[in-house]
Amino acid sequence: MSEIGKRIAAIVHAGLAPHLKAQLFRKRGVNFFRTDGDALQVVTVQSSQHNYGDSGKFRVNFGVHFPEVAKVLHGSDRMPKVPSEPYCLLRAIGSFPDRWWTVNPTTIAGTLASNLGSYWSEVVWPWLDANKRLPEAANTLEGHDLVAAAAARLVLSERDEAVRLVKARIADLESTIQAQSAHPEIVELLTARLKDVRDWATGHHLL
């Protein structure tokens, strides 16, 4: 591990790991995970690919995952054996400002670790706890991915809601295709996505 990698790991260990341990998260490398409620909760520490020498950045990515919803949405659950945040069905990225933590020779490790602990208590943990049940997570999903939200509603046996969400997504895509008519390459991508949504919805008898 590089020197900056070791320093970031030490700060995470001091500022974040105690909170995760207290909530019985398991650790594998940069990934922390546990099951609570209906959800698999995942926290992944991502270091910037541009870290070099004694300076670098990292951020804390977090999300929740529902295997049964993933199976309805994708046909299988794509979460790897060691859970990692990018595979989560519902990711917090996009819900909060993109926050990177900077580490350089002037960084006071104790202060940064303390701030990281506060970030856990004020941002990460409340979000994870609020979305550990599928009904609440399904509501949050509506602001991220309408088709995934529809899959969640199917798991919850709320077919009418799933139909509403799929129709809303189709209408949104159709409107965007019209608006982008002057850009054939974008229209091509959107049309392919529209076909995927229609095929998925038809396969689940939502259209």
Secondary structure elements and pairings:
Blueprint: H1 3-15, H2 17-22, E1 26-28, E2 31-36, E3 39-47, E4 56-65, H3 67-74, E5 90-91, E6 101-103, H4 109-130, H5 134-141, H6 146-155, H7 159-179, H8 184-203
Antiparallel strand pairs: 1-2, 2-3, 3-4, 4-5, 4-6
Question: What tags apply to this protein structure?
Answer:
207 residues; alpha+beta; 2 domains; six-stranded antiparallel sheet; 8 helices; 6 strands; globular
Description of the molecule:
Helix content is 52%, strand content 16%. Strands 1, 2, 3, 4, 5 and 6 form a six-stranded antiparallel beta sheet that branches. It has 207 residues and is an alpha+beta fold. The chain contains eight helices and six strands. α1 (3-15) packs across α4 and α7 runs antiparallel to α8.
Q: Which radius of gyration do the C-alpha atoms yield?
A: 20 Å
Mean pLDDT: 95
* Total number of helices: 8
Q: What percentage of the residues does DSSP assign to strands (E)?
A: 15-25%
Helix content percent band: 40-55%
Quick take:
The protein has helices spanning 3-15, 17-22, 67-74, 109-130, 134-141, 146-155, 159-179, 184-203, and strands at residues 26-28, 31-36, 39-47, 56-65, 90-91, 101-103. The chain is of the alpha+beta class.
